[in-house]
Design goal:
The complex is a heterodimer of chains A (about 400) and B (about 400).
Chain A lengths: L7 H5 L13 E8 L4 H16 L4 E6 L11 E9 L2 H8 L7 E6 L23 E10 L4 H4 L10 E6 L16 H12 L6 H10 L5 H13 L1 E5 L25 E3 L18 E5 L9 H5 L25 H5 L6 E5 L12 H6 L1 H15 L18 H11 L1
Parallel strand pairs in A: 1-4, 4-5, 5-6
Antiparallel strand pairs in A: 1-3, 2-3, 6-7, 9-10
Helix pairs in contact in A: 2-5, 2-6, 5-7, 6-7
Chain B lengths: L9 E7 H11 L4 E4 L6 H12 L6 E4 L3 H13 L4 E5 L1 H6 L1 H10 L4 E6 L13 H4 L7 E4 L3 H16 L7 E6 L7 E7 L1 H7 L16 E3 L8 H30 L8 E4 L6 E5 L4 H13 L4 E6 L1 E3 L3 H8 L4 E6 L12 H10 L7 E7 L8 H15 L7 E4 L4
Parallel strand pairs in B: 2-3, 2-4, 4-5, 5-7, 6-7, 11-12, 11-14, 14-15, 15-16
Antiparallel strand pairs in B: 1-8, 6-13, 10-12
Helix pairs in contact in B: 1-2, 1-7, 3-5, 8-9, 10-13
Classes of the chains: A alpha/beta (about 400), B alpha/beta (about 400).
Chain lengths: ~400, ~400
């Protein structure tokens, strides 16, 4: 929760990197997109615990509990906690949710920009609770330099590990096994052997009748392919995160009432942010002003200009893609990966078009060429683990074609 | 306190308990009601419908498809500024439970008549108090009435107390099925002018849900908010007793009724050695018993509790300390509770724990499912309580009138 104090165990570790303290309990977070990656995260947590049984450690898994996270695409978290004995495990579990994390694994790189599981709480940095010397593992085709443009700095050095790959749909309720869980486990074993060694997780996989050689192969490929960057203290985006201050009962309005907005106003406390993986990009030259996007948008994210155009207010757009589907003009509203807009943030692009239509057209085409996505926001790879990222690139090409 | 003659003109009418409630609903000028039949509550929806049909009351009458909808309709109507009336009985009241549970936290002063009825199976229509009591821990204020007159009085009191901005809680008027809902007695009905003086118009102020006052009521609250919501509701619950006292004084001044004590009625307790204590229609046979035993020189009295929520713990502790024993009569039960007794008994024991002088407390379970509680049964209870007062060994809990 916002503003929560680090636990006593964390204070005891002050000054020592989490990798150096081998005998302490460890916490691993998996940050994922609700429902799409639910099974994936649960499966990963399970394997972290089971791999630790090979060295007689105990473990437990906890899902970040709230009403929101399990919904479509909403950022969610599941934790695996491991400890050398029951006493130290209990010390960790007594806090319910780990206050400080040794490893944070990001299963969808658009989450690097921040995690917001509940609108009111604001967008929290992806590495908010990363311990001194902790490791952030991201499944991504992006470079460390690109990712560090959105990941905030820490006052201590930490490690960024990148496992090449696209966000997996392997966790959707109908579990489509694409090997991503194995590749992620391999990556953890490589960069954080204090969490578990490769041999330990190999043994778990070998003993599981449902898993075969291809899983072992994916596990080892993850181990081989993960790339490691040591991030220096102060390196990364300037952190503008402020913990939400929750009011006391004497300050709150009585009768479960919150102030609302007058017609035409937008609620400043209920902006969307990290539940968006892609955003609509409008071609104002092609727009026929039919206003179907404006009518159909479930979040009323379209503004209306004096000229009758409908630019998107990205502060309120969830990136659901409905507008791109109801728009009758081909390629007028195109969905583009949200990480393509690191420079622009949520700013309104309509003035850009008004001032320089030609410049806008070029800018838009460049964005589309780099990050066009279809409806779900995910590359629907029906094939086995895109080991080198090639398959994902190909499917991206195919979709584009 | 001396009671002045009632203000205005009062007319006398022979009515059932449900008709008496309806008369008060009319004088309170209720805007919205929602109905779904179940005995013994249904008499009141028929009586209210008749008042509307006769042009005596202008009120939106919505027949719901079930009790859950009924209570939701009235809760929402209350949020947009309507004075509402609703009600149910037994398992019908249970069916509305989800709605009943959220209404107090939303601080909407829904007034409901609960025609107390046994919880099925086996389909019993008769009175038991467990149905209303399931909301005792949720913020509902609960008033147990003795007769048709009190049905009328308590209904006006419910709007006055529940709608007070310091309170804003739903109120249940608990009416013993059959004994009060279905029997006619003469009642005094005041004129509209005097009622208006007692009951100001319903005003939600800045809590009114209206386009000109944009607010959201009850947005999704997650784990970071619930403690604070509960504590706020608790703060309001602590203010209720003071508001009841004010309303009670006004009521006596204007209508000339109600007795000295807003929370409970004491009958022949001045020099009593021991008393029986109960709620609802059992006051009648209890008073008959007290008079008979008094005639034989027994120093016995009776206390009838009116407000069950808020529970007048301090007031009861102060009063009951005078007696050597109290026999609590529960028209309810609480399986597996401390001492395996009734709900009222359990609450009363808790209320007296910190008292300087604690009388001996015994419990009687009786009149369940609509079984009559006769003056003879009262004699039996009085006898056990008398023995308890003298330090004899008697059971803590006795079932009265049960076949063995």
């Amino acid at each position: 929760m916002a503003g929560r104090e680090p636990g006593a165990a964390a204070e005891a570790l002050e000054g020592r990197a989490s990798t150096e303290v081998l005998e302490e309990a460890k916490s691993v977070e998996f940050t994922y997109r609700g429902i799409f990656q639910k099974t994936l995260a649960a499966n990963l947590c399970k394997h972290v615990v089971m791999a630790n049984r090979r060295r007689e450690w105990l473990g437990s898994t906890i899902q970040r509990y709230s009403d929101s996270p399990e919904r479509n695409g909403v950022p969610a978290k599941q934790f695996a906690v491991i400890a050398p004995d029951e006493e130290r495990l209990q010390e960790h579990l007594a806090k319910y949710e780990p206050g400080e994390l040794d490893v944070i694994t990001v299963l969808d790189d658009t989450l690097c920009d921040g995690v917001e599981s509940w609108a009111f709480y604001g967008r929290q940095p992806i590495n908010l609770r990363l311990r001194r010397g902790g490791t952030l593992i991201v499944v991504s085709h992006r470079s460390a330099e690109e990712l560090l443009r959105v990941i905030p700095r820490k006052p201590w050095p930490w490690t960024l590990a990148i496992l090449p790959g696209t966000p997996s749909m392997g966790g959707l309720w109908v579990y489509r096994d694409d090997g991503t869980d194995m590749r992620v486990l391999g990556a953890i074993a490589k960069v954080r052997p204090d969490i578990f060694e490769l041999e330990a997780v190999e043994e778990v996989v070998e003993e599981d009748e449902k898993l075969g050689d291809e899983h072992l192969e994916a596990l080892r490929s993850g181990y081989e392919e993960v790339r490691v960057y040591e991030v220096a203290s102060g390196e990364g985006k300037e952190d503008d995160y402020e913990p939400v201050r929750l009011p006391g009962y004497r300050e709150m309005r009585e009768a479960i009432i919150v102030e609302a907005c007058k017609p035409g106003e937008r609620n400043p406390d209920y902006k969307t942010s990290s539940d968006r993986t892609m955003r609509p990009l409008v071609d104002f030259d092609a727009c026929i002003k039919c206003r179907q996007c404006w009518l159909d948008c479930p979040d009323e994210a379209f503004d209306v200009t004096e000229e009758g155009y409908f630019p998107v207010n990205y502060d309120y757009c969830t990136g659901c893609g409905l507008c791109s589907q109801v728009c009758p003009v081909e390629d007028c509203i195109v969905m583009v990966n949200d990480l393509e807009f690191i420079e622009e943030g949520n700013q309104d692009v309509f003035p850009k078009w008004k001032e320089d239509p030609e410049g806008y057209r070029e800018w838009r085409e460049e964005k589309i060429a780099r990050g066009r996505v279809r409806h779900s926001g995910y590359f629907n790879t029906d094939v086995w683990a895109p080991v080198d990222g090639g398959t994902a690139e190909r499917s991206r090409e195919e979709e584009r074609g | 306190m001396t009671v002045a003659r009632p203000r205005g003109r009062q007319i006398e009418k022979l009515t059932t308990g449900t008709q008496a409630v309806a008369q008060a609903v009319k004088l309170a000028d209720v805007d919205v009601t929602a109905a779904y039949p179940i005995r013994p509550y249904d008499g009141v929806m028929q009586a209210v419908a008749k008042l509307i049909a006769d042009g005596e009351l202008e009120c939106e009458y919505i027949v719901a498809e079930g009790e859950h909808s009924q209570f939701e309709i009235c809760k929402h109507a209350s949020a947009v500024g309507s004075r509402v009336f609703v009600g149910s009985s037994g398992v019908g009241w249970m069916y509305a439970m989800e709605s009943l549970a959220v209404t107090p936290s939303l601080r909407l002063p829904v007034v409901a008549m609960i025609g107390n009825r046994a919880l099925d199976d086996p389909g019993a229509f008769g009175v038991e108090h467990n149905d209303a009591m399931v909301v005792r821990d949720l913020g509902w204020l609960l008033f147990w009435v003795e007769d048709a007159q009190e049905c009328f009085d308590a209904t006006l009191m419910a709007y006055r107390v529940g709608e007070d901005r310091r309170v804003s809680f739903p109120v249940g008027i608990c009416v013993d099925g059959a004994f009060i809902t279905h029997s006619q007695t003469l009642i005094e009905i005041p004129d509209q002018e005097t009622v208006n003086e007692f009951l100001p118009p319903y005003d939600l102020g800045d809590r009114l849900l209206h386009p000109d006052n944009p607010i959201t009521i009850a947005p999704q609250a997650n784990e970071d908010w619930v403690m604070e919501i509960r504590k706020q509701t608790d703060e309001a619950a602590r203010r209720v007793k003071g508001v009841i006292r004010e309303a009670h004084d006004d009521f006596r001044r204007l209508f000339g009724r109600g007795g000295d004590n807003p929370f409970f009625e004491e009958y022949m307790t001045e020099d009593a050695e021991y008393v029986l204590l109960g709620m609802g229609s059992l006051g009648l046979p209890a008073k008959v018993m007290v008079r008979r035993l008094r005639g034989r020189g027994e120093k016995v009295g009776f206390i009838r509790l009116k407000w069950f929520r808020p529970f007048p713990d301090e007031e009861l502790a102060e009063s009951l300390g005078r007696f050597r024993a109290v026999g609590v009569i529960d028209r309810d039960y609480s399986y597996g509770s401390p001492q395996q007794g009734g709900v009222l008994f359990t609450d009363l024991r808790a209320a007296l724990y910190d008292a300087e002088r604690r009388p001996r407390l015994v419990d009687f379970i009786g009149g369940l499912g609509g079984r009559e509680l006769t003056p003879e049964m009262m004699d039996e209870m009085a006898e056990i309580t008398r023995r308890a007062a003298r330090g004899e060994d008697v059971p803590t809990v006795s079932w009265i009138g049960v076949r063995e």
